[in-house]
Amino acid sequence: MNEAPLLSVRDLHKTFVHGGGPLKGGTRVAAVNGVSFDLMPGATLALVGESGSGKSTTARLVLRLLAPDRGTIHLDGRDWLALPPRELNRLRREVGVVFQDPATSLNPRMTVEEIVAEPLDIHRLAAGRARRERVAALLEAVGLPLSAMGKTPREFSGGQRQRIAIARALATEPRLVVLDEPVSALDVSIRAQVVNLLRDLQRTTPSRPAYLFIGHDLGLVRAIADEVAVLYLGRIVEAGPTAEVFARPRHPYTALLIASEPRGTPPQEGERPARLRAPGEPPSPADPPSGCAFHPRCPSAQAVCRDGTPREESEEGTRRRVSCFFPLGGA
Amino acid sequence: MSAPPGESLLSVRHLAVTFPLPSGEEARVVDGISFDVAPGEIVALVGESGCGKSVTALALLDLVPPPGRILSGEVLFEGRDLLSAPEREKERARGGGIGLVFQEPGAALDPVRTIGSELVDVLRRHRGLSRREARGAALEWLRRVSLPDPARRFDDLPHRMSGGMRQRAMVALALAGGPRLLVADEPTTALDVTIQAQILDLLRDLRRDLGLAIVLITHDLGVVAETADRALVMYAGEIVESARVSDLFARPSHPYTRGLLASRPGEDGRLRAMPGSVPEPGRRPVGCAFEPRCPEAFGRCRAARPTLRPVPDTAVEAACFLHDEGGAA
Hints:
heterodimer, A: alpha/beta, eight-stranded mixed beta sheet, 11 helices, globular, B: alpha/beta, Rossmann fold, four-stranded antiparallel beta sheet, 22% strand
């Protein structure tokens, strides 16, 4: 693949300080601890992990809702963190976002037309009749009737509100859309509608947006993402093409996540095979274990895992990488 | 599929619950459902938001919050109707014969009481233990649910524990009264997936070791497949299918069940979406509630309401005209 990445993140760090003043020194929580990845134009990368893995903080750093302590983010080859304000504003239209809860991310006082057109107004992309036609086209693309324009978000169901949020995210024809748990708040049958819509829109939107999908449901990740990065306590422990990572996980934590996912079919009569389980819970990011952060729960852990941090290894000839002293599936 | 009355631990008959709408009308959020739970059986009530599954859980203990109210029906627990029982008997059943576990243990546990003192209370009230005996038994329960470091956690307030630990504490609390039935309302929905797997293992172990029956309320078909013996699929306040879990997944009989199963991401990553959404409360269609979304609906589905009936040549019950003799003809 010779194409240049659309989004390139290198060695991103973000530490929060909780409690105590700046002088008293509160608890330091390293939420994102050296995250690097590339996202190719038009592709979908999923960041998966459990609470405290740093996946949502990473999304916020990419959106520049937070400033990192260290690291770089390049968007379309430009230093996204060091752009002069005018260029930054121009580049912002290349980035859309959909949050988990449309009930709180859409302004309840604005009409759907105002909500969807706001990015067009901010970037002065359309006015008057062109603006109205653009909103109408967006609503049609996300499967909402034109009569939605004059209504407010509360007049819609959760799934319909998420369609409004998607129309808004796509208004400026962005090349990157950050999807932060976009269907986690929705019912199963509605979830499928919205995921299918997102997949269709990626193909039919002229800007062919790349998706950075933040999620915890491995089944959905399988459905939507070309590539996946698994996070544990602020670090990517494994990454690669989704189908390969799921078929042949190399990090013991990835294997645990897959084994913990309900299988989706009941076991045969009388059979309840032993499943891979890890004792304990993910440790607090405020008090991470030494060495590899997963070692206290890891079935393959040895002394070296407690003492040293594993280096990330890339698998030759593939796009897979894993940070583990004893990766699964042999050396 | 209902167990003969003599063998049922719990027998729900024609239960209906209503909530008032802003218009003044009453919406039937649970619309005359009947089901049985045998001792030691895990029965899942599964459905999407608003299907009535959580209200059903509350109604089992006559805990429907006002302005909702139980319109009619019976909840026979060990042969006695709890809904018409005197308040004292209901109190004894809650936490005694029937334990309750909620989705958010953080909201269900008293924030200013240690988990140990809550447990001691339950053990004294429902088991008649002395304070000293209750303390020993409480520690034993914390161990039984694999709460890490139970002696230290005994004196912890809920907010000092993680979500997974709180849910273990909640399960200990629900079991300490010695129930024969545990009602668990979305017990793992707020938990991370590796912790969810641990809690589901725990529930299955408790059923095996204590012979506990469990009514598991969930929206997650994956959880149903992993955990339950039998499933009742709810839609718009009604049970539309009742089946052993193996039958439900291998040969779903109701088009809604089929749609739910197809909405899940499969190995190939494809999702088949169901069109439309559940009817709003009070806007239930005259015929089958699923008819507007059903790919197989025919004339009769708009005109009449199907009731839950055995599907010929199966051990399954479904509320669908497709299974009537010459139904679709």
